[in-house]
Amino acid sequence: MRLATGVAEGSIDLEQLTDSDMPDAEVEKRLPALPGVGPYAAAHVMLVSLWAGTGS
Question: pTM for the complete prediction?
């Protein structure tokens, strides 16, 4: 709930994680720092984002 509230209030900006100039290692570091996001959820988000970016 804290993640959703933070995004709604503007204190958490998820759009910054979609910046193509941001190295994967930085995204991998920032995702688990979000409330309620653990290593498995972070890995899943990165994999889904990678797949979505291929145009498949």
Answer: 0.72
pLDDT in tens, 2-45: 999 999 999 999 999 888 898 989 999 999 999 999 999 999 99
Closest CA to 27 of 53, 55, 9: 53
Model confidence at 1: pLDDT above 90: no
How many Å apart are CA 36 and CA 21, to the nearest integer? 25
In the chain, the number of structural domains is 1
Residue for token pair 């190295």? 23
Structural domain harbouring 42: 2-52
How wide is the angle at C-alpha 8 spanned by C-alphas 6 and 9, nearest 5°?
A: 65
Chain position carrying tokens 């570091």: 29
